[in-house]
Amino acid sequence: MNPRHILAVTKKDIKAELRGKETLNFMFLFSFISLLMFNFATDPYSPTLKDVAPGFLWFVFIFTGMLGLSRAFLKEKETGTLEGLQLAPLSKEDILYAKIIYNLLLMLAIEAVAFPLFIVLFNYEIQGSVAEALIVLTLGNIGFVIVGSFMSALVMSARSRELVLQIIVLPLLLPVIILTIIALRKVMIFAEPLLTIGEIKLVVSYVAIMAVLSSLLFEYILEE
Amino acid sequence: MRFERKYAVALLAALWAMVLYAMYSALFRLGPLKEELLRFEGDPMRHGYKIFFFSMETAAITYLAFTVLLVASILYLRSKDMKWDVIGSSSAKIGIVFTTILLVNGAIFSKVGWGAYWNWDPRQTTSLMLWFILAAYLSLRTAIDSDETRARLSAIIGIFGFVGVPLTHVSATIWVSNHPQLYNQAGKAPFSLDKAGVSVFMMMMLGVLVLYLYFMWLTVKIERLNQKVLSGER
Question: Is A29 an interface residue toward B (CB < 8 Å)?
Fold first, then answer.
């Protein structure tokens, strides 16, 4: 693990993305339109909206993230740059770490726009601290991109990859997804601080296990 | 050879008789739950607790199937021997059958004990997660053409998927759950079986274990024949 190598690959991905902005634009538009859809799914004046809205927000992020993730390694495979990356003098895990950081940045960039949009569209008032809500969201995102980036590399050689990716990632992430929704709901509905500490601990430990497994097993994905 | 098969059939028949006897005992010979454990007058768990004898074993076999899958996956990645891939995938196939039975049993138990077939109890939810993981494992296998790639990638999923097993096991303690527990926080058993109950449980366990092993043997054999046919050997 070499931080300079990781940053170099991440920088390359960001640069390539900023030239075309393909994924970023699609992800943003998708998150916007799905926020609208979810808004129509409920009565905006219903009192239950406050309870279900945090779940909607998180699902918008998950589905938007899926859209970006399925492209992460596929792009390299399609353009034939994966071989180049493998030939470069960096350890294989560094490629994975770089992709994880890149995907995380991508998701956070989308969320930086979608979260305020959500507040506006749902007319939502967060009762707890906004910082805690952001911490919970970011932790959930980290878990999501670790498993997601790893699995998007894994399904590269499968048929109908995008479909298979969802089927594999969602069950493995079920604990993270559920815990993040619970924590998000708590922090958005109750004013009392640090109610979510139990969920945060569980998410961190689960994500840590997933991260260790990912870095241990990544070399087996790339060997042909 | 023929001689051995005769013994095997006799042994299986004896086991089958034993399991039938155990089922009969569980349903008709065992008494109701102790009065002090009942939650209210006319609690359906009075006899409903006997679902335990039909559901606990399937849970144990589900864990076993995942463990076999984990070990076979690790051994495959280390040795690249197709034998381990066959064992792992067979265990996953049988595992999904037992997990389905577990979920159905769990739903019946849930209806009797808590009033709804699906209660979103942490145990139920995490068991469903196990089912989804096995389903994902098996669907990934159908989506890859090359034998070697299929074995390698699904072994990785097999290792990842095992994470769900300890999670399911501790789910009833780390989350708020109605699921009955074998041990409470102080390490004492709030619910214990009498001697007859234990012997019924052991008989059922043995029967289900042999069923798992038999399915394993059969699936591995079919898979071997399959490979032989596909590779054109005689």
Answer: no
